[in-house]
Every structure is written in structure tokens, then in C-alpha cells.
Amino acid sequence: MQQIEEPRPRRKWRRISALGLVLAVGVVAIAGRSTWPFQTIKSASAVSAAPTAIPVITAKAELRDLPIERSGIGTVTSLNAIDVKFRADGQLQHIAFTEGHDVDAGEVLAQIDPRPYQAQLAQTEAAYQKDQASLNNAKADEGRASRLSQTGAGTQQAIDTARAQVAVLTAALAGDQAAIDMAKLNLEFTTVKAPIAGRVGLRQIDEGAIVHGSDSSGLVSITQIAPIGVLFSLPQRDLPALLAGQTHADLTVSVSTTEGAQHLADGKLGVIDSQVDASTGMVRLKAYFQNEDRILWPGELVTARIRLSIERSAIVAPSAAIQNGQNGSYVFVVAPDHSVSAVTVKVGPTVDGYTQLLSGVSAGQEIVLDGQSRLTNGTMVKPQLRPVPATAGEAS
Question: How far is it, in rounded angstroms, from Cα 163 to Cα 145?
């Protein structure tokens, strides 16, 4: 029987087909690997080209009633301050006050030895009584001379002499009364009393010393503490506003420490000086304070703030948002798409960290408060709105 063999060409074709399949898969794999790095580079370029938003702190311009105030360095001054001096000579027997304490008007401060003045008063009173007796006798003589003259037994000369004696003794009696009054006054001066109410300072003399009315130094100084005044000055350009404000009502004045850290007291403007200092261009003002808590002290330096008027519904923004450039003041305004643009503004007075914007910005617009150094027109930002305090404070 003859065997039939499988043809060899078919087996060879199978080998070629398998080899071709392997080569095709390899080509596809190589092609896939060759395009992957380029896709990665393209994606990275796209990411780096996208703009990065800059984080900033923002606030909104708003409407507020803005108090228009002016300030200046002032000096607390007493309305009355005196140096109590002696009006009688003698030995200082007793000091009745305590240094640094308050005294009332008429309160006894010291006592000078009164005995010499008591003796002088007694002497003048005795002289008065003597002249009073002589006057009574002279008046009796005048009466007798007048009756004798009416009966023809006396002369007119006797009447005239008696009348002259009465006049002389009447004048002497008036002089005696004046001497008595002076002696009483000198005796009263031996008791030293406070002429005003206030606080006494350090005593200038000790008990037992001999004092005279002509001494240059006194007993003690008394300074009125309540009420009290504050003297301060403002530039002459504020004078029209001061005069206009004073015609409507008393202008309020508040004082604080010189660095402004502590509010001290509130008072009223009392006096605008009658002239401007030609050398400085300043006008002096005086305000009054009740000072019942004794927080203001004579000679103390303070910052005085006077409220001239109130600007109603003013557009204000935090002062930190205001930038200064070659063309003036400007702010960065945030658009709805979070891009910023520099807007020129005209500014008004500054009040406790808030500045009035007279033009350029409307109420409600969001402006950049912090982070302006990295911004230009068109910069994209990531805003964080700062909470707004309830009210503005005092003007600067």
C-alpha cells in the first residue's frame, strides 16, 4: 500500500505566518512606546502654562458716618492755681493740712501766734472807749452852752467851741473804729485759710518758723483739679471749621495719652484764642473737663481730639488698602472673575484705620487689603474676605 505524505510547503507557510504575527505585534508595541513620552511632555507644558491665583486678603468699601476730627498735643492746666502766702507776721504755731490732700475753700491750713494781735485789738478798743466817753462829755457841754445862749447867759463863742470839740472827738472815734477793724483783720490773718478748693502740694515751711507777710515763699500751693482745662493748638486752616461748628453747638473734645493707647476723658471746647500765633500759624484752644475721677493732672501732656462735624454716609475703606504711586493714591479692585485692576482714588480724612474714598470706588466693591506687592493689572487672585468691625472710631 502506498503512504501519502503531507506536503512540506504548508508547514513552512505556518512558520512564516507565525513569524509575521510576532513582528507585527513588536512593531505596534514599539510604536506605542515611541509616542508616550511626547504625550507626557505636552501635558506638563499645558499645566505650567495655566496662571496661578495669588492668595490675598480683601475687604469691601462701605458706607459709614465718618466723624471729622482734628488732633493736637495739649497740656492739662488748672483753672485756678495759687501759692498761699502769709499776711501776718509771727511764729507758725500749727499746720493743719496734709500734703497731697484735697481742701475746701475756707478750710484752715495753719495758725500763726495770735497773741500780739489780740493785745493790739484790746488796745484799740480801749482807745475807742476813751474817745467815746470824751465825745459824750463834749456833747453835754455843747447842750449846756446852747441853753445858756438862749437865756442870754452864754456867748456864741462858747457854743462854737463846744461844737468844734464834738466834731474833733467824733472824728477821733471814727479813727478808733477803723483801728479796731484793722486789728480784727490782722488777728483774722493769723488763721491761714484756703482761698479756693483744690489739692494742696508739698508744704514750703515747717511749724515753729517765724514768718512775715513780705516773705517770697509761701505756705503751700493749691491747685484746682476739678473742673480742669486742656490747652492745645490747631493749624489756622482749621479755624473756619472751628468757628462754624461752635455756632451750632458746643464742640466735643476727647483726650487720650500722648501715644493714644488710653482714652482719658471727654469734655467741651470752651475758648478759641482771639488771634493766631504769627510765628507758628497755630491757634490756641482751651477745653474744659469735669475731671471728677481726677484722671487728668495739671502739667500732663495729652493728645486732644476735637470733633468738627460728621460726614454722613461716606464711602470708606481700610487704610491698609490705599497704595501710593507716581500718579497718586490707588487701590486694587477685585473683579467677579477674581482678576484685579489698579484704580486711582481720591482720599479724604482717615478715621481709626479707615480712609474716606471721595472718588474711584463705589460702596460694596471688593478691594485688596493685603498682598498688593505681587499684583499687577490682570493678576488672578484667590481672595479671602476680612470680617468688618461694627463702627469706625476717632479721627486722626
Answer: 9
What digits encode the pLDDT tens for the residues 262-320? Answer: 999 999 999 999 999 999 999 999 999 999 999 999 999 999 999 988 888 999 999 99
96 with 140, same domain: the answer is no
CA atoms of 316 and 63, how far apart (whole Å): 6
Q: How confident is the model over 150-161, as a mean pLDDT?
A: 83
**What one-character DSSP code corresponds to residue 379?**
-
Nearest to residue 134, comparing CAs of 81, 173, 92? 173
Distance of CA 298 to the CA centre of its chain: 14
Burial degree of 87 (CB within 10 A; 0-12, 13-18, 19+): middle
Q: How far apart are CA 279 and CA 187, in angstroms?
A: 51
Provide the 10 A C-beta neighbour count for residue 303: 21
Q: Which of 52-56, 303-307, 325-329, 350-354 has the lowest mean pLDDT?
A: 350-354
For residue 334, what is the domain's CATH number?
2.40.420.20
Same domain, 101 and 215: yes
Cell numbers for 192? 491761714
Question: Do 273 and 366 belong to one domain?
Answer: no
Model confidence pTM above 0.90: no
Domain that holds residue 257: 70-79+223-311
Do the domain assignments include residue 162?
yes
**Residue 29 domain-assigned (yes or no):** no
Task: Please calculate the CA angle 246-250-256 and round it to the nearest 5 degrees.
Answer: 110
b/e sequence 371-393, b meaning 16+ C-beta within 10 Å: bbeebeeebebebeeeeeeeebe
Amino acid making up residue 380: M
